[in-house]
Design a protein that fits this description.
Distance between the termini: 33 Å
Shape: elongated
Number of helices: 13
Order of helices and strands: EEHEHEHEHHHHHHEEHEHHH
Radius of gyration: 21 Å
Helix content: 40-55%
C-alpha cells in the first residue's frame, strides 16, 4: 500500500501518494489523511499525483466528495502533477470542472480540447472543407449517397476512405460538444468495464470507462446513436455521459479487458512514448501557491 506523505506549504496542505491508488487500503489511507487535514483545520488541500499513473472511479468519487465537503467550510481542493492519462480521465468524466488544477498550461490544454460557440450549429461539411480535410466534390458525392443509403455523411466519408475516422470524431467533438479521447492503458476502470456484457458492448461498439455518482462515462464511435444510449441506460440503470473514441480502439480495449493483469513497466513506457510526464511544478513562491490553491471553481 502506498504511503500518503503530508506536508504544509504556506496555507496549503500537500498530500502526496507514493504509489498507485488502486485498492481499498490505498483509498482508505487517502480518506484518512484528508480527514486528518480537515480535523486540523487545514482546509486548503493539494493532492500531488506525481506517483499516481492513473485513477479509477472510486478515486474520482473521493475527489468529488472531498471537494463538496471542503466548499462547505470555505476550503479548496486542488491537484498538481497530473499526467496526461489522469487529465483525460478528469476531462471525460467532467470531474476537472469541480477542481482546481495547478499544473502550468493545463487550462490551455483543456480549452484546446473543448468546443466553442463558433462551432455551434455549423454543418459538418463546412467544417471539413474549412480544414481542407475533404474536397467539396467528395462532400457532394457523400450527400447523394446519404439520400440513397440513409447513412450519415460522416459514416459515408469514412467508409469510402475519403476521411480518417479520428478527424471525423475530432470535428464531431467540437460540433456536438462531446469529448474526444484516445483510448489507451489506464483510461478505463477495470471494475466498471464488465458492467455491460462484452458481446453486447461489441454489438453496440461501446466501452464503459468510469462510473462516478451513477453516471457512466461511455466511449462510443457514434454519439448520435440515441437508441444505443437508451439501451445502455436500461441495462445499467445509470445516466450516460458519451465520449468519442475510434471504433478500432474500442474493440481493441474490449478484446484486452478480459485480462486483469496490469503491467506497470509497460504502462509507463507507453505513457512516456505518447506524452511527457509532468515534472514537479510546485512553485518556490509560497504566495503564488496560496493564490493558485485558493482560486477554486464553484
Amino acid at each position: 500500500m502506498p504511503e500518503i506523505l503530508r506536508n504544509r506549504v504556506g496555507i496549503s496542505s500537500y498530500l502526496a501518494p507514493t504509489g498507485p491508488l488502486s485498492d481499498k487500503e490505498s483509498f482508505d489511507s487517502l480518506r484518512a489523511e484528508i480527514r486528518n487535514c480537515i480535523e486540523a483545520h487545514e482546509t486548503h488541500i493539494v493532492i500531488d499525483l506525481k506517483q499516481v499513473p492513473s485513477v479509477n472511479s472510486q478515486i474520482l468519487e473521493i475527489l468529488l466528495d472531498t471537494r463538496d465537503h471542503l466548499i462547505l467550510i470555505a476550503g479548496t481542493l486542488s491537484l498538481i502533477n497530473t499526467n496526461a492519462v489522469v487529465l483525460d480521465a478528469l476531462r471525460i468524466t467532467n470531474v476537472h470542472s469541480y477542481l482546481n488544477l495547478l499544473d502550468e498550461g493545463i487550462n490551455e490544454q483543456l480549452k484546446a480540447t473543448s468546443s466553442s460557440s463558433e462551432f455551434t450549429g455549423k454543418r459538418l461539411g463546412d467544417m471539413l472543407t474549412d480544414e481542407n480535410l475533404v474536397t467539396e466534390d467528395k462532400i457532394d458525392q457523400a450527400f447523394k449517397l446519404q439520400e440513397s443509403t440513409g447513412k450519415r455523411m460522416g459514416q459515408i466519408l469514412v467508409e469510402k476512405g475519403w476521411l480518417e475516422e479520428a478527424n471525423l470524431l475530432r470535428l464531431l467533438s467540437l460540433q456536438l460538444n462531446v469529448p474526444f479521447v484516445k483510448l489507451r492503458m489506464g483510461l478505463s476502470d477495470p471494475e466498471v468495464t464488465p458492467i455491460i456484457n462484452k458481446e453486447v458492448a461489441r454489438r453496440l461498439n461501446v466501452l464503459p470507462l468510469f462510473r462516478v455518482r451513477n453516471e457512466l462515462t461511455l466511449a462510443t464511435c457514434d454519439p448520435q446513436a440515441f437508441p444505443v444510449l437508451d439501451e445502455i441506460k436500461q441495462l445499467t440503470g445509470c445516466s450516460v455521459r458519451p465520449v468519442l473514441a475510434r471504433r478500432e480502439e474500442i474493440l481493441y480495449e474490449l478484446k484486452g479487458s478480459a485480462s486483469t493483469s496490469f503491467n506497470f513497466d509497460e504502462y509507463i513506457g507507453e505513457l512516456e512514448e505518447d506524452f511527457e510526464l509532468v515534472d514537479n511544478s510546485i512553485p518556490d513562491d509560497f504566495t503564488t501557491i496560496d493564490e493558485m490553491a485558493g482560486d477554486s471553481p464553484v
